[in-house]
Amino acid sequence: MGEQQKQAQPLGVWHTIKPFANGGASGMLATCVIQPIDMIKVRIQLGQGSASSVASTMLKEEGVRAFYKGLSAGLLRQATYTTARLGSFRMLTNKAIEANEGKPLPLYQKALCGLTAGAIGACFGSPADLALIRMQADATLPAAQRRHYTNAFHALSRIVADEGVLALWKGAGPTVVRAMALNMGMLASYDQSLELFRDNLGFGEIPTVVGASAISGFFASACSLPFDYVKTQIQKMQPDAEGKYPYTGSLDCAMKTLKAGGPLKFYTGFPVYCVRIAPHVMMTWIFLNQIQKAEKKIGL
Known about the structure:
Elements: H1 2-45, H2 51-62, H3 71-99, H4 107-137, H5 152-163, H6 172-200, H7 205-236, H8 250-261, H9 270-297
Helix pairs in contact: 1-3, 1-9, 3-4, 4-5, 4-6, 6-7, 7-9
Membrane topology: Multi-pass membrane protein
Keywords: Membrane, Mitochondrion, Mitochondrion inner membrane, Repeat, Transmembrane, Transmembrane helix, Transport
Main location: mitochondrion
């Protein structure tokens, strides 16, 4: 009896942390594949030109390694942000399904779970996200203003030393709002699409996962890009000679952007952003599905 309790306890702990561990692992694997596209996306948003010109300039002037600049911060971001958002989303939906007597959740409840999970994930991932943006934008700054971070942990330690601990959450407001929008689109649409393809249309496992992942990626992109644009502008801004920043906050940035370029300005770089976000979302779900299948085979 005592031996059975000892075995049950570790399994109970693993059952609790499994959604978080699986989410983080799948996000990190997806990031390793998608990092070069993410790098190009940031450079486009910073006004460096089109996707092809940015890629060719980076390759010619900085070499292949430039496409993976900030990878350590990207992996750290997934280890914090995606671990928290996917894990908390699954916990929230499981609790909601229990309260709903095992019946599938309506779309609005999935959307609420996605919003909440996005906010939780962003709070954990904001420091790594700030480090990632700064490392990716560093080469676009004048030589005198470059920070020369060597990796994510060097960036975080320098930010704390130079600007204080709270600076790690600089731009956290737009980061959280963006994450809520992205995860509402990504998480709710994925679960809804799974039910549609699997239960209503009778698709097999591969078409169901790929199809639901593609829909999830599209809605994640469409919902989040305006917030991502504002977040990037806030996080990379530098003070002028008088010490004044170009924007006082995310709302000021949004209003000035709207006035200067109209609503479509927020969708600058949308094709590349969609190409970056949608595959990352798709690969995250596909990796997650494969991880879960492997765990079932070994009895976890």
